[in-house]
Design brief:
The chain has eleven helices and twelve strands. By secondary structure, the protein is an alpha/beta fold. Strand 1, helix 3 and strand 2 form a beta-alpha-beta unit. It binds iron/sulfur cluster. Pathway: Cofactor biosynthesis; biotin biosynthesis; biotin from 7,8-diaminononanoate: step 2/2.
């Protein structure tokens, strides 16, 4: 058996480094081969991401336009009602989404009426037959358990960057806090969505280290979003250079090879990519994109649904079925 086709949790940093640093065409070919073994290569999952509570976050993530301490000019919006959210989810399903992710700009979940409302949203979206995902910040074990009971399919909690680079980006929580929440999500029986962002001033070694952390978890995250920094005016990282697409391709291909069965999601940064550039990401093993009703992903630009439809048609891609495909 081709050794690339095994699922491994014992990757060394050196092995991942060697894959990551391969000549690009060789890397993409290898990733595409792994992709075709584990996934239908012509299917891309369309996920809708909705900000259910926007801005005013007490955390200091240096890339984020929703942190209250940065003057980014975004409009702060309170938690939406469950009715509004389920209506948007229904339209998202009709438009071809099979996964619906609800994001709240919170440091952590509190046991209050807002959380009860989120549980109601989870129940409502789950009843539509969508894979329902939330990203709400840190969770206690009992909160993770309650989300699971409400029908939550997946929880997103990105590592963002490597353990070494973490303090440069966020000071209000630790890398270990991230891992603790991920463990609680896993323990509750919820599917794990965790990836990171490139272009935060990290080194190549940091990228490899972050991938190493994900690929050596006792179970790989079922979902691995790969984001390019969306430079938001007013944040400390606004002046950083645009991420080169080839860097995204390299990151996606490496993630695909070391976590072959996971969904690898081409996430933030698509609005600055041409169709040709996105095609390379699909060749490298990305099999999911995010959309929203507006042309924004949370508070940063995102391609319009119509443009994505044209791209799918051109590339012969079809949206993954809205039937849940995970057990
Ligand atoms: S990334 Fe999340 S936790 Fe960090 S500031 Fe933004 S909304 Fe808050």
């Amino acid at each position: 058996m081709n050794s690339d086709l095994q699922i491994r949790h014992d990757w060394t940093i050196e092995e991942i480094e060697k894959i990551y640093n391969q000549p690009l065409l060789e890397l993409v070919y290898r990733a595409a081969t792994v992709h075709r073994h584990y996934h239908p290569a012509n299917q891309v999952q369309v996920c809708t991401l909705l900000s259910i509570k926007t801005g005013g976050c007490p955390e200091d993530c240096a890339y984020c336009g929703q942190a209250a301490r940065y003057n980014t000019g975004i409009t702060v919006k309170p938690l939406m009602s469950a009715e509004q959210v389920v209506g948007i989810a229904r339209r998202a399903k009709e438009a071809g989404s099979s996964r619906f992710c609800m994001a709240a700009a919170w440091r952590e979940v509190r046991d209050n009426r807002d959380f009860d409302n989120v549980l109601e949203m989870v129940r409502g979206v789950n009843e539509l037959g969508l894979e329902v995902c939330c990203t709400l910040g840190m969770l206690s074990q009992s909160q993770a358990d309650r989300l699971q009971l409400a029908g939550l399919h997946a929880y997103n909690h990105n590592l963002d960057t490597s353990e070494n680079h973490y303090d440069e980006i966020i000071s209000t929580r630790t890398f270990d806090d991230r891992l603790t929440t991920l463990n609680r999500v896993r323990k509750a029986g919820i599917s794990v969505c965790s990836g990171g962002i490139i272009g935060l001033g990290e080194t190549h070694a940091d990228r490899v280290n972050m991938l190493h952390t994900l690929a050596t978890l006792s179970k790989h995250p079922e979902s691995v979003p790969v984001n390019a920094l969306a430079r938001v005016r007013g944040t400390p990282l606004e002046e950083l250079p645009k991420v080169d697409t080839w860097e995204m391709v390299r990151m996606i291909a490496t993630a695909r090879i070391i976590m072959p069965a996971s969904m690898v999601r081409l996430s933030a940064g698509r609005s600055e990519m041409s169709t040709e550039e996105q095609s390379w990401c699909f060749m490298a093993g990305a099999n999911s994109i995010f959309t929203s009703e507006s042309d924004e992903l949370l508070v940063t630009p995102n391609p319009r649904l119509d443009d994505d439809r044209k791209m799918f048609e051109l590339l012969g891609l079809i949206p993954m079925s809205t039937d849940k495909h995970y057990a």
